[in-house]
């Protein structure tokens, strides 16, 4: 097969079509597909090609809007425009339009990967009265047309060679030392830009439910990531980034206080917690409502983290229940065990989920699972469905992975009885989906 044309750097006038998974709209030019960022469906734009590997598609950015969508507003993120970071894919669209784009993407992924056609409504996660009392600062008043801001309580920054904190340029290892993104809660990044940090390090910032800010510097990877764009180089960079690294607590205690349904967790500031200040409570409420456990039931919480869902399941099913949680991160299991020590029905295990399931001989009534972005996949869903739980609550933060997993459930004889999607990452292309599945 001969290589296609190289359009890198060219500026093309195109009409934008439907949204695609990843924060872009699809356009066509001379028989090729363009994935165009910074535009909305229906807009006529001048798009500059930023990446072309000679195949059937290339990537581009809308640098001039010739015919604007009525859903377009003035962008409120100065970091994420053409040539910038990938933090706020849709900072130029109304919240309603953003949710419409996300709903279209989820529906398309379910059609294509799960062969299931269904309507999707993406719900907002408003900052409620309890959230607005966070000491980091109440969310500013905003109009219905303005993109939402001040929702992110967890931030991860990179440090450039000069010791300045910033974010990566989109699809690049370059660092943009500009912290004006409107996602973080008020006060989260105060003083960070004015300070100098260890070159190559990363910063984790967490503003907890008591309003305390924790800043932790992660030492640079022990083995410098290999340069290059091939798969082995990418795998090496990822492995280096996720390897255990020395932590230096710069401010706060490094232990973040979080509350869900009146229960307190003390968790590592560098561990996982939902970044949207309202997400953990909202998802927990949905899970508890769908689980509908009988007293004394057996339930599984897979990829349980610190046991937020396990706690709700145990409280619902009572002291004679058996609630088993599984999580590969030992530190999260330790934090969860400490927070749930009064719930004798809960037993958390530090193990890989697929390995743990293989050793179980007691069928659960309900299974809740919140896998990582890549999804659960066959290695988990096949043995999980073989255990024949009455209900499964599946949570996914990537529409494609979520749709693939739904397809696997369908193959195993389960059907989605309820589906909810939340705009837990305003101004970005990300969306959280929750599905209740039962046997057909």
From TrEMBL:
The enzyme's first-digit EC class, named in words, is: transferase
The protein's matches in Gene3D superfamilies, at most eight in alphabetical order, are given as:
2.40.50.1070, Nucleic acid-binding proteins, Vaccinia Virus protein VP39
User: PROSITE patterns from the entry?
Assistant: SAM_MT_RNA_M5U, TRAM
Query: Keywords assigned by UniProt?
Result: Methyltransferase, S-adenosyl-L-methionine, Transferase
Cite the active-site annotation.
397 (nucleophile)
In short, the EC number is: 2.1.1.190
Q: Which InterPro entries match?
A: NA-bd_OB-fold (IPR012340), SAM-dependent_MTases_sf (IPR029063), TRAM_dom (IPR002792), U5_MeTrfase_fam (IPR010280)
Question: In Gene Ontology terms, what is a biological process of this protein?
Answer: rRNA base methylation
Kindly list the GO molecular function terms attached to this UniProt entry. Answer: rRNA (uridine-C5-)-methyltransferase activity
Q: Where is this region: Disordered?
A: 221-247
Sites where the protein binds S-adenosyl-L-methionine = 274, 303, 327, 370
Could you tell me which residue ranges the TRAM domain spans? 5-64
SUPFAM superfamilies from the entry? Answer: Nucleic acid-binding proteins, S-adenosyl-L-methionine-dependent methyltransferases
Recorded protein name is 23S rRNA (Uracil(1939)-C(5))-methyltransferase RlmD
Organism encoding this protein: Nocardia cerradoensis
